[in-house]
Amino acid sequence: MRPAVVLFSGGLDSSTCLAIAKEEGFAPHALAVRYGQRHVHELTAAGRVAAAMGAPLKIVDLDLRAIGGSALTGELPVPKDAPIGPGIPVTYVPARNTVLLALALAYAEVLGAQDLYIGVNAIDYSGYPDCRPAFVGAFEALANLATAAAVEGRARYTVHAPLLQLSKAEIIRRGAGLGVPYALTHSCYDPDPEGRACGRCDSCRLRRQGFADAGVPDPTRYA
Predict the structure, then answer these.
(1) H-type helices in the chain, by residue range?
(2) What is the distance between the alpha carbons of residues 179 and 65, in angstroms, rounded to a whole number?
(3) CA separation for the pair 138, 118 (Å, rounded)
(4) What is the DSSP letter of 92?
(5) 3-state class of 117 per DSSP?
(6) Which residues pair with 31 in a beta bridge?
(7) What is the rounded distance in angstroms from the CA atom of residue 25 to the CA atom of residue 175?
(8) HSE-up (13 A, CA, CB side) for residue 185
(9) pLDDT by residue (tens digit) across 45-103?
(10) How far apart are CA 1 and CA 197, in angstroms?
(11) Mean pLDDT score, 143-170
(12) Which domain holds residue 182?
């Protein structure tokens, strides 16, 4: 089985991505990043989900709080019960997916992997610019210009975004069919000290609605 690197947060989308990578015949290596996120509980979830799904997990430390500019890495409050519109919310972390995919690319080059998986979604999402098809295509082009393996002809990198055009309900149905242990996952931007979801941030609301629309029981622990 060929190795692949799956950018992994322990959330609903990245866990589904991991299952899809396995279904598509890859041996997935999960990569999570401790970047100073207030919802660091997601890394605990990443560990238990990766273990349950039989994938090795590597956690990299990179503190984006030094840059700030986001409610997830600074002191700005996480919006609750706010309309989810076309604008970019304060939970956007500047250049996060660019930075995290770059780490995944570096890990792939070391592993000898040529395939990267990322669980971005351009339908049921909060308007982040780095969750769109143009971003995925641009990064794939970059990967094949910026690495020794590609320049020397030893690799041709592909960035897989299998959830890109799926609704949250479609993602959940796909994952449920693949046996994703959603009860172990974590999506909330502002959990309580016990790791229970707030139920009111954008991520919680999209997740809750997705389970309802999919007709799948929601296993989330809410505060």
Answers:
(1) 12-23, 41-52, 96-111, 133-143, 148-151, 168-177, 202-214
(2) 35
(3) 14
(4) P
(5) strand
(6) 7, 58
(7) 16
(8) 26
(9) 999 999 999 999 999 999 999 999 999 998 889 999 988 777 788 999 999 999 999 99
(10) 36
(11) 97
(12) 2-214
Task: Return the structure tokens found at 160.
Answer: 């897989």
Q: Are strands 26-34 and 2-7 parallel, antiparallel or unpaired?
A: parallel
The CA distances from residue 161 to 3, 27, 133, in Å, are 16, 17, 9
- The strand pair at 115-117 and 57-61 is best described as unpaired
Query: How many CA atoms, within 13 angstroms, populate the side-chain half-sphere of residue 69?
Result: 10
Query: Residue 29: which H helix or E strand, with range?
Result: strand 26-34
Q: Is 223 domain-assigned? A: no
Residue found under tokens 């949250």: 168
Q: How many domains does the chain have?
A: 1
Q: Is 61 helix (H, G, I), strand (E, B) or coil?
A: strand
Run of H or E residues at 158: strand 158-160
Residue with tokens 């995925």: 136
Residue 95, domain CATH? 3.40.50.620
- Let me know if residue 88 belongs to a domain: yes
N- to C-terminal Cα separation, the chain: 41
CA 10 remoteness from chain centre: 8
Helix axes 12-23, 168-177, angle to 10 degrees: 50
pTM more than 0.90: yes
Distance (Å, rounded) from C-alpha 133 to C-alpha 162? Answer: 11
